[in-house]
Amino acid sequence: MKYIDTDAVHMTILDDSVVLVEARHGVEISSVNARVANELIAREMPGNYGMIINRKEDYSIVPVDVYEVLNRMDRLKAIALVL
Questions:
Q1: CATH number for the domain that contains residue 60
Q2: Which pairs with CB-CB distance under 8 Å and at least 24 residues apart come from 30-36?
Q3: 58: Cβ–Cβ under 8 A, 6 or more apart, which residues?
Q4: Which domain holds residue 15?
Q5: Checking DSSP bridges between strand 18-23 and strand 28-29, what pairing results, if any?
Q6: Buried b (16+ CB within 10 A) or exposed e, 5-19
Q7: Which residues in the chain land under pLDDT 70?
Q8: What is the pLDDT of residue 24?
């Protein structure tokens, strides 16, 4: 496993095809920090991959902006939200 941290999110590369993403408590996920996090993930993943988003913390999201970022990720093939 490999860990990647930003001010907004903590990411764990579970294997070559799955990444676990957890936002930090109290942050707002916007297009800017979503783009940064997803570019970091894309650099680490060797091929197509899926993303598990664990919503265990209390944070806010700008849905339209974030979904636009996610839709541009060509190799991102699956997203699972865990509440």
A1: 3.30.750
A2: 30/62, 30/65, 30/66, 31/62, 31/65, 31/66, 31/68, 31/69, 33/6, 33/7, 33/8, 33/9, 34/65, 34/66, 34/69, 34/70, 35/69, 36/6, 36/8
A3: 25, 26
A4: 2-82
A5: unpaired
A6: eeebbbbbbeeeeeb
A7: none
A8: 96
